[in-house]
Amino acid sequence: MALMTDGRRYGERVEVVARDGRPVLAGVFDERQVRAAAGITMALGSVAFAEALLAKSYLPIRAVTAFFFVDFTLRVWLGLGRSPVGLLARTLTRTMPPEWVSAAPKRFAWSLGLVMSLAMTVITNLRITGLLPMSICTLCLTLMWLEAVLGLCLGCQVHRLLVRRGLLGARANVEICSDGACQVGVPAPPTPTVGPGVNG
Q: Distance (Å, rounded) from C-alpha 200 to C-alpha 197?
């Protein structure tokens, strides 16, 4: 399977076919790397959240939320492999076979993460504490846990719903799978060759 990069499209380009036999036209990401990245961000966020909640030390959460904002910005605009967390996730999963999933739903989910990380960066650096940052942080950690541990991308589910209702426009080059995680392809099987029969 050849890996291609195409600056005009978001995500990686690979030579795979969809489950119905059609060639995959959209950019893709490796689901293993996506889940590893979610686990890394969840671990960092959990430590910072615990420091703020239990030790009343708010410097870690200010730094982590600002880092998340930068990381999600890079993911949304340049792709997972261009962000610091994405690079680490790629290193951790480099020996595992890729599981390709559609890039567009992941980009939408990361856009939601970008908005929440921006909100948390502003809130925490304005020294706002209490229920508001706690609620946003809990929501973020829950979404990361669902992605990392269960492989459930709720942002992808929302993306699928919006596409099906025509709210994100018609995009024929984006494959939307039924469960929202958007696993789109498997390597194209070799064409079987038929040799002459034993009696021929």
A: 5
